[in-house]
Write a structure and sequence with these properties.
Radius of gyration: 42 Å
Low-confidence stretches: none
CATH superfamily of the largest domain: Bira Bifunctional Protein, Domain 2
Number of domains: 2
Order of helices and strands: HHHHHEEHEEHEEHEEEHEHH
CATH topology of the largest domain: BirA Bifunctional Protein, domain 2
Number of strands: 10
Distance between the termini: 79 Å
Strand content: 15-25%
Largest sheet: 7 strands, mixed
Mean pLDDT: 87
Number of helices: 11
Strand order of the largest sheet: 1-5-6-10-9-8-7
Shape: rod-shaped
CATH class of the largest domain: Alpha Beta
Structural class: alpha+beta
Helix content: 40-55%
Length: about 325
């Protein structure tokens, strides 16, 4: 820069720089180029700094004039840059929207395959096994009354066994069933023996939620009534079912107590080095048969009940019952 430039010449150079800067900024087509142009105009070694380097040679009274014009130029250039940045961002957004527009009328390339909850498949497998043994599926209501849920199953009011099942009462003698056993009473009221049924369904108890308990769970009731049935038939049926479901695992029967069966037993399988209780069973108590108008001297039968969640968790190695109810796709995708 020549040392002979006057104040007016420097101001004229600043005006030319403003015009050229405005033109160059308007022609920039991308953000990177705009940033490079900003540095070339306003950077420490930019064009504005080159012009201002000659200001020190001016008389003291002229320097403010050049300084004021330089500040005005800098403000305008920054505004040009800001306006262009907004334009470039808007253009980029329009391109993005154009390229990523979803045409909902286009036929899908593929449809993702859904997954069934393992509780559903476990229930179906259990039902299939019993149907293969000659049983038919029966169902009943989840909202029951005291008669079907307790009294008809030899659990009269005040019976200690009622304390074994912490019940949800709805009022008006109604409750949420605590087991699927009421189905056997309803079925026998409408069907004369011999009968062989398996009854699946949800049941409800006031259990605290943890890894192995839930206030809502699934149970399957098994019932057979015929002439001449005894505990050996019960044992043979249970063993055939468990070995079909679990394979050749050791099985044991332990004496137990249920109000509607006598004698009663609990059944364990040996799993992962320990005995695991999987179902309860027993011969139908004669008092239950008499309440249905059946002669216990002629008819006998057995009943069994199992929790679907327990069978499902053992089969698939699931460590927490709550996983079965969360509908987490990452969990369901494993099945």
């Amino acid at each position: 820069m020549s040392s002979t430039l006057s104040c007016q010449e420097l101001i004229e150079q600043l005006e030319v720089l403003e015009q050229e800067a405005q033109k160059d900024i308007e022609e920039v087509s991308d953000g990177d180029s705009l940033e490079k142009l900003r540095i070339s105009l306003l950077g420490k070694k930019g064009r504005l700094s080159v012009v201002l380097s000659a200001m020190g040679r001016l008389p003291g009274e002229e320097r403010p004039l050049v300084g004021q014009r330089a500040n005005l130029l800098k403000t305008k250039v920054q505004q040009f840059l800001s306006d262009r940045t907004k334009v470039l961002k808007q253009q980029a957004l329009e391109v993005l929207l154009r390229e990523e527009t979803l045409d909902v009328t286009v036929p899908p390339i593929g449809v993702p395959v859904g997954k069934r909850n393992p509780l559903v498949t476990t229930t179906e497998e259990i039902l299939d096994l019993f149907c293969g043994l000659g049983y038919r599926v029966a169902e009943g209501p989840e909202i029951e009354n005291d008669h079907y849920n307790f009294a008809a199953l030899n659990i009269p009011e005040g019976h200690p066994a009622r304390d074994m099942q912490d019940t949800f009462y709805l009022g008006g003698n109604l409750l949420l069933r605590t087991h699927t056993s009421p189905v056997q009473i309803r079925y026998l009221e409408q069907n004369k023996p011999p009968v062989r049924i398996v009854a699946p369904g949800r049941v409800y108890r006031r259990d605290a939620v943890d890894a192995t308990h839930s206030p809502v769970f699934n149970q399957i009731e098994v019932l057979a009534i015929d002439e001449g049935l005894d505990f050996s038939h019960l044992r043979g049926t249970v063993l055939a079912f468990l070995r079909s479901f679990f394979g050749d695992l050791p099985v044991r029967f332990r004496a137990s107590y249920f109000p509607f069966t006598e004698p009663s037993a609990e059944v364990d399988v040996q799993w992962r080095g320990r005995w695991l209780e999987v179902m309860g069973c027993g011969m139908v108590d004669p008092a239950v048969l008499e309440g249905l108008g059946l002669d216990p001297e002629r008819w006998s039968g057995f009943a069994a009940g199992l929790g679907v969640e327990r069978f499902c968790m053992v089969r698939h190695g699931i460590d927490d019952i709550r996983r079965l109810y969360t509908n987490d796709l990452r969990f369901l995708d494993q099945f």
